[in-house]
Amino acid sequence: MVPEEASVRPAGWARVAVVIVTYNSAGVLGDCLRALADEGTPLAAVVVADNASRDETCQIARDFADLDVTVAEIGRNAGYAAGVNAGIAALDLAHLDAVLVLNADCRVSPNTLQVLASALRQSGRGIVVPRLLYPNGCQQYTLRRKPTVVRALVEALVPGGLAGRLGALGERVTDPRAYEQPGVTSWATGAAMMLSVTAFLDVGPWDESFLLYSEETEYCLRAADKGWCTWYEPAAVFEHVGGDSETKPMFASMLTVNKVELFRRRHNRMHGACYLVAVAVGQGMRAIAGRPTSRASIMALFQPSRRMQELPT
C-alpha cells in the first residue's frame, strides 16, 4: 500500500520503500520507526519482515500511527536474508526506485534517505551504505575489503583491530580518515543498505543459506560480479546499536563458519583450504589465550555437528 503522503513527494525525489527485519525487536523497533517518520522523506512503503518474534514486535509495528506499516510474518526465525527477501516480496517494485534494508536497531538521521538515493543514481552503483555511529557517537568500522587468504592470515596474526591499520593488508577498514570520504567499498555491514531496484532485479534475492552472517558480504560480491558496485556515502548518518557477534560464542562461531563457507563457494578447493587454515590459525591462537568465542569458532569449523543448522525461536 502506498501511503497518502507519497502523493506529495517533491519533484525529483526518489521513490523509496523501507524493509525492516525484526526478531524480538520490541525494545528498538519503536525508535527505528519514529526516526523514519521524522526523517522527512515521504515513503512509498514500510514493511516489517518479522522472524517469528515472541515479544510485542509485530503489535508495535501495526500500532505505529505515523507510518503505514505492513507486517510480513515469516513464521519462523529464518535469518536476515530471508527477512530481506520476504520484505521485498511484499513491495510493488515497479513503482519504486530504491529499497532501504534496515536492522530494527538502526535510527536514520533527518534528511538522509534522499542523500543515499541521490548517490545511488550514479551509473554502476547498485548498493549505497551510510555512515554508522554507535549511540555514543563513535564511528563504527563497517567498511570491508574483499576477502583474501593474505588478509585472513594478517588478521589472524595481528592482534585486535590492528590489522585494519596496515592499509590494504587488512580486510576490515579501521582508518578513521577512510570514513570521511565517499567511495567504492567491496562490502559493508548490512545493518543499513539502500538497494537500487534495477540492481536488485538483476542480481536477484539474497542467499538465505547464510544464516545471520555473511549474507550481506555474499550479496555485495555477487552484485559486483554483475557490474554493480557498493558505494559508501558518509553524508548519510545512521545510529546503530550493534550486535552480539563479538561477544556471544554461538554467534561468533556462526560468523566464522559462514565467512569460510562463502570464500570456499567463490574460490577453488586449494584457495578455500588455505583460507580455512588462515582463519583457523587466528581463532586457534585466541582460543589458547582463553577467548570463549574463538573456542566455539574452532569447534564449529572442524566439527560440523556443532554448527548451527537453524536459528533459535
Automatic annotation (TrEMBL):
* Pathway involvement of the protein, from the record: Cell wall biogenesis; cell wall polysaccharide biosynthesis
Per the record, the domain of life is: Bacteria
Q: Which GO terms describe its molecular function?
A: glycosyltransferase activity
| Keyword Oxidoreductase set for record | no
Under the heading InterPro entries, the entry gives: Glyco_trans_2-like, Nucleotide-diphossugar_trans
Please cite one Gene Ontology biological process associated with this protein: cell wall organization
Asked if the keyword Transferase belongs to this entry, the reply reads yes
Pfam families associated with the record: Glycos_transf_2
Q: Where is the Glycosyltransferase 2-like domain positioned along the sequence?
A: 18-141
Q: Which UniProt keywords apply?
A: Cell wall biogenesis/degradation, Glycosyltransferase, Transferase
The family classification in the record reads: Belongs to the glycosyltransferase 2 family.
Please state what the protein is called. Glycosyl transferase family 2
What species is given as this protein's source? Mycolicibacterium diernhoferi
The record lists the lineage as: Bacteria, Bacillati, Actinomycetota, Actinomycetes, Mycobacteriales
